[in-house]
Amino acid sequence: MDDLKSKYLTQIADAADEASLEDIRIAAVGKKGEVALKMRELGKMTAEERQVAGPALNALKSEINSALAAKKAALADAALDERLRSEWLDVTLPTRTQRRGTIHPISQVTEEVTAIFAEMGFSVAEGPRIDTDWYNFDALNIPGHHPARAEMDTFYMHRAEGDNRPPHVLRTHTSPVQIRSMEATGAPTRIICPGGVYRADYDQTHTPMFHQVEGLAIDRDISMANLKWVLEEFVKSYFEVDGVDLRFRASHFPFTEPSAEVDIRCSWEGGTLKVGEGDDWLEILGSGMVHPKVLEAGGIDPTEWQGFAFGMGIDRIAMLKYGVPDLRAFFDSDLRWLRHYGFAALDVPTLHGGLSR
Ligand code: DAH
Predict the structure, then answer these.
(1) Which of 8, 104, 237, 334 sits between 20 and 30 A of 245, alpha carbons compared?
(2) Which alpha helices (H) appear in the chain, and where do they start and end?
(3) Average pLDDT for residues 77-87, to the nearest whole number?
């Protein structure tokens, strides 16, 4: 037993890493290790012999175990010391003077919009950019023959012959997230969903990928008046002006009844856009009271609940606020453009700090 003890204690002391320590543990006190083999021999001993050998073997086992634990801790300490020696950082070095990356205006505006709606109790919901045509169309009361289905210039995902899964599309708007969040949380609910959407379209004000923010508020007694107030508050905060005139124009969307498009008063005098004054109107969003069929598709009882929804173009309001004349520039990744229109990385928009400063 003394031989065993000095053999293993020496091996443990000499072990260079955790792997060899583990090998020693298995050979010494593992299930089939030397100590276990010795313990098996206890059965063949006389009762007197066993009274001496039993406790001695147990003591040997626990001595080896504590030597193993102590060595393991020492190895870990040494490894940490080594890391601390090699991974140091001189925090007194000067920072890089040249600004490197910037926050893209779309990201900045998304943060601004989120900050404003968060203040009004809306949380952020997300949905997949590739969705089934049921979520993108049918659940939103746009059946197969409906002209809106063709108007949306939908990108359909390729389907191999014999594939019977439901057709998938690149979502043409953020409205399918209305259905997904109704399914997820039921009523009441108050969400916005900012995100990318896709349509086959390309000119100065259209790109095949662009961004929308969807809004949805459902409760027992929500009305158009609530929609109007929320949108007015939003526009005032977002454009950082005290007063704005909004014009609600009767319109039609399959997923709302009644529906309204909203314009905001502005002027283009001298070629620059001013929001809140002048004689021009600019359309910024579509909205309305959620259609009962849409509530039903989302699993919400339309005889108990009602609500409003809206969908706004993020790129559109970014162009307006920051004076970007061509939408395509947002997605060209031209470094000069990004440096000019980008935002400093640490200027996170908040209502109290000022949104765009
Ligand atoms: N989904 C519409 C579009 O992409 C925008 C929209 C209109 C969304 C009215 C809404 C709404 O939630 O109520 O053109």
Answers:
(1) 104
(2) 2-14, 18-29, 34-41, 47-86, 105-119, 133-136, 147-151, 176-185, 224-239, 292-297, 314-322, 335-341
(3) 91
